[in-house]
Design goal:
single chain, about 180 residues, alpha+beta, 4-stranded antiparallel beta sheet, binds heme C
Length: about 180
């Protein structure tokens, strides 16, 4: 009788525990999805302000964009580097860029799930995707070669593996990885 009571109590306690845990788990996923979308929108806006505001203005004063901006007093970081620099300042999550044919290995898809997301974005139907990658929530905001210079610079970069980029191509995405 005693053993039965103990068993019944344990059963009820686990059911209550499960009832509490399950909805909380689902809510966390929805929250992460929303967070990923907000972070991507903010990162994209920051990059746009950098390009249209800061770079456009500074170039009137003779400033140029240069990947080696650290060594050149008259040059500023590229927009891609600006996003990666933002990411370096953030400890709470991973913010970076990912490419279909990246110049650097650090910008390659980190998993099969990320490769699948890039393939999905390449179809062009969606601009933003959020998906689970194991315990990580990954968000991507599609990046297109909106001007000729995107294609030109990537085609002529010493590290490129693809030399036929053209205006309008899907090149990759801004990526956020939330644990
Ligand atoms: C002046 C050269 C230059 C221009 C112009 C340029 N990029 Fe890049 N891009 C780079 C470099 C260099 C990197 C690698 C930066 C790093 O990881 O430190 C990069 C990285 C990227 C990445 C990450 C994947 C990869 O290839 O490594 C994407 C996506 C990207 N650029 C898209 C674009 C788009 C879209 C444009 C135009 C709106 C653009 N780039 C314009 C030089 C350029």
């Amino acid at each position: 009788m005693r053993r039965w009571t103990t068993f019944a109590t344990m059963f009820v306690v686990s059911m209550i525990g499960l009832a509490l845990v399950v909805p909380v788990g689902q809510a966390a996923d929805a929250a992460k999805e929303l967070a990923a979308k907000y972070i991507l929108a903010t990162a994209k806006a920051a990059r746009t302000v950098y390009v249209k505001g800061v770079v456009a203005d500074a170039s009137k004063g003779g400033m140029k964009l240069n990947e080696d901006w650290v060594k050149d007093d008259h040059a500023m970081m590229l927009p891609a580097q600006f996003v990666k620099e933002l990411g370096k300042e953030i400890k709470e999550f991973d913010l970076s860029l990912v490419g279909t044919d990246p110049l650097y290995a650090s910008n390659a898809a980190k998993s099969d799930a990320e490769k699948g997301m890039l393939a999905e974005l390449a179809k062009g139907k969606e601009k933003v995707l959020v998906a689970a990658d194991g315990a990580t929530t990954v968000g991507m905001s599609a990046d297109y070669a909106i001007v000729d210079s995107c294609a030109d610079c990537h085609n002529n970069h010493p590290k490129t593996t693809k030399k036929d980029w053209k205006k309008g191509d899907f090149m990759g995405a801004i990526v956020v990885r939330l644990k």
